[in-house]
Write a structure and sequence with these properties.
Elements (H helix, E strand, L loop, with lengths): L7 E3 L5 H11 L6 E3 L20 E4 L6 H9 L1 H4 L2 H19 L5 H10 L3 E2 L8 E2 L9 E2 L4 E6 L2 E4 L1
Parallel strand pairs: 1-2, 2-3
Antiparallel strand pairs: 3-7, 4-5, 5-6, 7-8
Helix pairs in contact: 4-5
Length: 158
Amino acid sequence: MRPISGVLSHSGLPNSEARVALARSSLEWDVPVLANSALMFGYARPDWRDGYLGWEYIDTIADDNRSRARLAELFPHAAGGPIGCAAYDIGRLLGEGIAAAEHLTRAGVADGLRRVKQLPASSGHEGTLIGFGVWDHAALKGHYLVLRTWRDGRSMQV
């Protein structure tokens, strides 16, 4: 069998990347792989990490984020992956929004959330912020997408 060259781009849904990794291994197709955020499942499924070896993918975890480093001091498990960081960020945002609410009604909390702006996020690169506005309903602001790869059973920033 002659070697196959090229590059593999995986943009599938979560859980499909494990099957792609198995197929790639069975074909002995050693090409660079670029993937979407589905490879974040490697945090939850250590048994899949070997199949992702060397793949580059989109994540929300940055090694240079000081807010994430502070979170790691308090709650190492939460700071160890994208779900824990996102939960912490959203929890802080909700807490600040409730604290800023003039009254605890649906409209009051919504107004309080709109007042929360520019909280440092533990997700994304250093400088990523979280907050809402009247016309801006996206919580994360800035460079929150991070290129990472799996090496030696660990996710590492590229």
